[in-house]
Each structure stands twice: as structure tokens, then as C-alpha cells.
Amino acid sequence: MSNDPLVVFTPSGKRGRFPVGTPVLTAARQLGVDLDSVCGGRGICSKCQITPGYGEFSKHGVTVHADALSAWNAVEARYDEKRGLKPGRRLGCQAQILRDVVIDVPPESQVHKQVVRKAASARVIEMDPATKLYFVEVEEPDMHEPTGDMERLARALRREWDIPEIRADLSLLAKLQPVLRKGRFQVTVALHRDHAGDPAQVLEIWPGLHEGGLYGLAIDLGSTTIAAHLTDLETGEVKASSGIMNPQIRFGEDLMSRVSYAMMNPGGNKEMTAAVRDAINTLAAEIAKEAAIDAALIVETVIVCNPVMHHLLLGIDPVELGQAPFALALSSSLALDARQLDLAAINPRARVYILPCVAGHVGADCAAVALSEEPGKSEDLVLIIDVGTNAEILLGDKSRVLACSSPTGPAFEGAQISSGQRAAPGAIEAIRIDPVTKEPRFRVIGCELWSDEAGFAEATEASGITGICGSGIIEAVAELRMAGLLDESGLLGSAEATGTARMIPEGRTHAYLIHDGSATGGPVITVTQGDIRAIQLAKSALYAGARLLMDERGVDNVDRVVLAGAFGAHISPLHAMVLGMIPDVPLERVTSAGNAAGTGARIALCNVAARREIERVVGEITKVETAIEPRFQEHFVAANAIPHKTDPFAELAKIVTLPSPNFNTHGDGSDGGRRKRRRG
Ligand code: FES
């Protein structure tokens, strides 16, 4: 056995013997220990901080003496003076190994740090983004050995970081020489290395050590809203999240009406492309401003979206997606320059990655949900529903995963609802109706109090009570059903039939009055028969999609349900089940995954290997097309009743007894409401 000192790294447990005088960073690299470094050991980036342990480590069979490492040197002293090193910390590139030692690598010094998601399923994201920072010292030009600055930069990256090949576009080349000279030939580059093994691309270059960070955007491009998470590419931390309405709404509320707009209006698709690109630019600029970050530091973007949004974003006419066989122009993933999508608000050389689409109606957003929720790794049979204007539905377990999309329309997002609005302060998000008095109490976004609690009026004075958002309307319809004000077929009763003056006549139908703010100039908030019909259409489409996948799988029950989507986290499982949005399972088996598509985008942003994984997973998903499947229509009609015409909902019956009034005074179920199926 050699007499060289033994080094044990924690938490990895990796160990080895190294000659006296070896820097800790060198030992870490040779053992494959995850210890960060941007400056390559020059003592300027401070990424390599470690904590040596002293004393007896019986577990490792090591006793560490006070002189196990070289003494604190001038570089560390200078860093400590300028920035401050935490007590007990050393710079791994400066501290040399003199005797046996145990070295702890704190999480912030690990390159592949693990970021724990906040959502219920605690999947960790391992940080390994496609774009990282590298500090290099480039040789100065020499008349006797003429080479270009770019070639010498490439040589330095090869020598210091083992990067075999680089490329850069013209706009980068144009700034290379001044930056190199300004940094006295010491520069930091942001280098993009994709999972396809293409040459690394220099996206940005700064003189000296760049300490301003590096950022990426994870974008969930929905038909109704566009949401973005600005993410620190070094730590994985979300610096800001923001969303805006998709301006394409003015061309059509749902997907198919946008496809029709493109079909009917020459150049219509181009208008929609320009609108969505514009909106993404606005969102990117706003979110960078909110986080007080220079938008030019955003060098990566990952976008997830449904197929129609996908084509419109890319400038591809979506006309083929409007008719069978719903052919996509391209279903594979896509890696682009931000400039190709006119994304001028971020770094001009930023890279964009778009997840693969699953099928003509099942988009990259569904792929992102699969990446985030991993149904293909589930032991039990899980149904994942991403509730949006178009619901993405996945059913599966370890053996097989099926997917479809279902045209729910925008009702769940508060659109097409008489008092509907998007989730914003002042919107009713939760409601309870007393089954005896039929009186409502509710909560609005921005206030924790219920409307019958003291202080509610004062607390909501600023926001007002402005309307009902998606989760609010789901609860309202379910509560109306539980309170006996709404019958199984979806008809609201009259004041006489229900015994409450809150049922007010509206033409030939009735509406339930939740809140009358007219005395103070506020809105009158009701749930109308038209609202009920809109929700029935949406929930029937959702349920029918889920049932279709269950048929395909040959089951009548699933083991658990995961609700995802921008407002999935806010949907009450009980109310969703009373409504019959989701199949009957024990209530505790319904969980929320929050915005799983957005999370999937964030995973692909933070971990380049996840891109390869989702490309593989998507290839293995069985696609089920709802539009041409006759059973979809049958399931849709049966699901129109609340909760359901034929499915027993036995689990629900264990916890709720639903009243069974019948408000059909015509004897034929007619009510002037619409009963048509919609796609998109
Ligand atoms: Fe940069 Fe140690 S590696 S300071």
C-alpha cells in the first residue's frame, strides 16, 4: 500500500491516495467527485468550496489532523477578504492534501446538484443543463505562429476543459476579438452542448470571469395562457414565474377555431404566428425585469405546447391538424436558434428546444407531463389528466402508457362562463353552498378568509369580488348538485322548486345568485344554465377521453388519479368527482401535480439527458385518437349526467349522498341549452 495520504470525499464516499501537495480539486476530478469549477482552478470563481473534517472518522478508518491540508494561502485570503468564505470552508483548488483527510463537498459546490421539486411527487432534478460557463485563458496571438483568435479559443477549451470542438455564429465572431482583448485573453464562455453530440456552440463570451449567472426559460405555451419560469441554469432555482394570455384568442378561443381561421383567411396562420412570438417576447422581457436579470443572460429556452400551438409557433400552417388523419409536419423534438422564432427579447444566440409531439392531437405538452410524472415508472395504474383548453390524458404503469387529448374547451379556465374570469385577485376560487339554507359562502383569490368570516369585506375591498375562476366554477357546479339545486341531468331548479330566492329566472331557465355587488357598483355573479352546459361539455369530454383509454387498456377502474395543469393544483378532488370529471377512485387516491407540463419543460431545461429520455419515452407511448373513435361519442353522452348516467361512482357514494331532484318540467330534458361536441 502506498504511503500517500488517503482522501475520502463525502457525501459520495469516493476515496483514493494522492501524492503530498495534490490540490483537493485535482483529487476530486481524478476520482470523478462532483466538485464544481468555472475558472479551472485559478482561485477566482469560488465554485470549488469544500469543508475539510477534522478528528476521528471511524466509519472511514481515518484520523484527520489539523495539518491535513496546506495552510490557508494568499488566494483564499484575498477571496475571503473580498467576498467572505463561510467558516470552515476552503477553496478546493488552493488547499493541498498533506495527510489523510475527509473532505465534504457542500451541495452548492456540486455541479450536478439536485433540485427538489415543490410538487407532491418529490422527483428531484439533477442539474446538468445543456449550456454551462467555462473560464479559459487563451494564448495571445503570435506573428510567428499565425492562428485566429477563434482557433486559439478552441485550443484553450480543448486543453483546459476537454471540449473537442466548438463552433460559433457570425454575431459571436464579431465580438470575439474585442472581448478577448478586454479580458486580457482571459474570458468566460457560455457553451451549449446538446444531447445529439454536435460540436459545442459558443453562445456568449465575457471578458474575465463572468459572475452574472446564466438563465433559461421554461415555457408552457397553452391555447389560453402562456406561462414561463425563469430558471437559474447553475442552481436550478426558479427566479420568477409569470404568465400572459395567449393573444391568439382573438383569432378563435379553441384550437379548431384557430385552425379554421387559418383555413378561411389567407395569411391567417402568419398573423397567429406573429402574435404568439410577440407574446413570448413580451413575457420574456417582463419576467427578466421582474427578476432584475439582464434578458441577454437567457441563453436557453424549452417550449412545450399542443400540436396546433407547436405548428403556429414554428410558422407552419396547422391546416392538416384540422382533419383526419391529423398529420403533424414534424413530430420529433426540435433544436433551434431563438432568432429563427424571432425571439429577440433574449440572447440573440439563445438555443430553443421543443419537446417532441406524441401525435396529431397529443402534443409536446403531453410529452412534458410524461417527463414530469413518469407514468411509465408507476407500479400501479395511474390516470394523469392535464386540465386545460385541450386536456392531455395519460393512462399507464410500468407495462404500457397510453395517451390521448380531449377537447374540453376553455370552460375550465373560466372562459365561456357568464361570470367567468381568469385566476386573479378578486376571482371566486372556492365556494360552499349550505344544503339546508342553500346560502353560499366563498373565498376569493388574494384573501384567506371565507365570505362569512369577520373582516372579509375589508380584506377584499381592494380586489373587489370580480368573477369566478376555473376552480371556482367546478366547485360551484358540484356544490349546486350536492345542495339539491341542480339535478342529475344538469338542470337548475326554480325558486319554487328549490325553496330559495337565490334561484333567479333567466329566460326559460334559472340561475343561482352567488353574489350581488351591484349596490356598490360591482358585478352580479351568478351560475347560469348556460354555464352548467359549458361545464358539462367540458367534463364529459374529459371523462370520455379517460374512459376511452381505460377501454383500450381493458379496465373499468384506475388505481389513482393525478390532476395536473396550471390550475390542477387548485381543483378540489371531491368536487371534481361529484362533477364526474374524473373516474371514481377513493378520494385520497386523487393527487395534484401542479403544472406538470411546465415542470416537464423545466426538467428538460435543467437536465440535457432528460431530453434524450423523453424522446425515447414518447416513442413508446400508445396514442389513442379520440376524434375518430365512435365510442368517444357514447362515453361523452353518458358522461353528460352529473356525475354520470351509468357508471356507479361507488367510492363517491361512500362519502357523499347526492340528492335526486328532477327539474325537467318539459318531460324531455330540453332547456334551450346546447348539446354539441366540440374539438379544440
Ligand atoms: Fe475556481 Fe477554485 S476552481 S476558485
Proper CATH architecture of the domain at 215-354: 2-Layer Sandwich
- Please work out how many helical segments DSSP would assign: 17
- Tell me, what's the shape? elongated
The major sheet is characterized as:
6 strands, mixed
Estimate the helix proportion, in percent.
25-40%
Strand order of the largest sheet: 18-17-16-19-21-20
> Helices and strands: which structural class?
alpha/beta
Low-pLDDT ranges: 117-122, 669-680
Q: Terminal Cα separation, in Å?
A: 71 Å
Query: Compute the gyration radius: what is it?
Result: 29 Å
Q: How many DSSP-defined strands?
A: 33
Bound molecules: FE2/S2 (inorganic) cluster
CATH superfamily of the domain at 215-354: Domain of unknown function (DUF4445)
What CATH calls the topology of the domain at 215-354 is Nucleotidyltransferase, domain 5
In CATH's first tier, which class of the domain at 215-354 applies?
A: Alpha Beta
Mean pLDDT: 90
How much of the sequence is in beta strands?
15-25%
